[in-house]
Amino acid sequence: MLYPDTVEAEILVHKPWFVATMFGAVFAIFLAFNLTSTSFGELMRPVIGEPSQSGLYGRFAIAFVIALLFVLNVVLIGFASLRVQIAIVWFELLLLFLAFFATFHLSLPFIWEKLPFLISQGVVTTLYVSAISIVIASLIAILGAVAKLSTNGFAYAIASFYTSFFRGLPLLMQVYLIYLGLPQLGFVVGAVPAGILALSLCYGAYMTEIFRSGIQSIDRGQWEASRSMGFGFSLTMRRIILPQALPVIIPPTGNQFISMLKDSSLVSVIGVWELMFLARTLGQKTFQHMEMLISASAIYWMLSICLELIQSRIERHYARSKVR
């Protein structure tokens, strides 16, 4: 979030020109869609009559009401404090998603029956695979970043080829190449180790560039001063460079971990019993796929929110030196 503005000004959502523009844009968007056959059309039946026969008048009335409600909602929320605004918008969006899912007529008893196994087996395996992969990927990234910053042509060539290759191939293809390709060389690996290796190599390539840019963000004078005091390369990196680079490295690294948590679903194609695999499998017998897929989606979202909160806390910890 930007620094608080010390100049008092009228709130944007309360300016007449902005309200009129917002109303016109929302009205035009919903007028382009025929919503008379939806549940909202049924709610408007006292105004437009039979929805299927209301024609252009029905579409106009529905678009007008939606635009009016949207604008009033935004204007009223604008009077609240920042935290209250965020809470209200989150609550409203969550209600919209719940209303959307309610149209699927999900079987809640089936979800509650399968949810414990989905969590105890699927979530645990997903976190296990993701956590080990991010640790290995971080180690690979540190080595790759140092190699790409070195003056050794051999090390730079290996690191640049590695990042180019693994960033250039889809992760799913890497999973297949490792799981099906290594046995051709005589190395038979299980599904879980193959999945961890694929995730580690793929994300290690991306994180190599994150670590490299973070290290390069530190002024060269820090390096020269450390070397002039007699510090060796490893001591300089551990004590001087990396501690200063961490505030730059942590935010994108946290994003990579969240992304890896979701991409771990790709290892389900080789039979790893993670969250996505179980969601597909548990719903196949009774053809209740949406119940399990929506449950898995909600769990992924909850896990992502937890990781976002942890990342935010770590970022605040390392940003303390920049607070004035």
TrEMBL record:
- Full protein name: Glutamate/aspartate import permease protein GltK
What CDD domains does its record include?
Answer: TM_PBP2 (cd06261)
Question: Which residue ranges run through the membrane?
Answer: 17-36, 56-79, 86-107, 127-147, 154-179, 185-206
| Predominant subcellular localization, coarse grouping | membrane
The protein's matches in SUPFAM superfamilies, at most eight in alphabetical order, are given as: MetI-like
Q: How does the protein associate with the membrane?
A: Multi-pass membrane protein
Q: Keyword Metal-binding: yes or no? A: no
Subunit annotation: The complex is composed of two ATP-binding proteins (GltL), two transmembrane proteins (GltJ and GltK) and a solute-binding protein (GltI).
Native organism is Mesorhizobium neociceri
Sorted UniProt keywords: Amino-acid transport, Cell membrane, Membrane, Transmembrane, Transmembrane helix, Transport
> Which molecular-function annotation in GO is an example for this chain?
transmembrane transporter activity
Question: Which NCBIfam families has this protein been placed in?
Answer: HEQRo_perm_3TM
Matching Pfam families: BPD_transp_1
**In the record, what lineage is assigned to the organism producing the protein?**
Bacteria, Pseudomonadati, Pseudomonadota, Alphaproteobacteria, Hyphomicrobiales
Which biological processes are named by the entry's GO terms? Answer: amino acid transport
Q: Where in the cell is it found?
A: Cell inner membrane; Cell membrane
Q: What does this protein do?
A: Part of the ABC transporter complex GltIJKL involved in glutamate and aspartate uptake. Probably responsible for the translocation of the substrate across the membrane.
The residues covered by the ABC transmembrane type-1 domain are 123-311
Q: Which InterPro entries match?
A: AA_ABC_transptr_permease_3TM, ArtM/GltK/GlnP/TcyL/YhdX-like, MetI-like, MetI-like_sf
Q: What family does this chain come from, according to its entry?
A: Belongs to the binding-protein-dependent transport system permease family. HisMQ subfamily.
Instruction: Return the PROSITE patterns for the record.
Output: ABC_TM1 (PS50928)
A single GO cellular-component term from the record reads: ATP-binding cassette (ABC) transporter complex
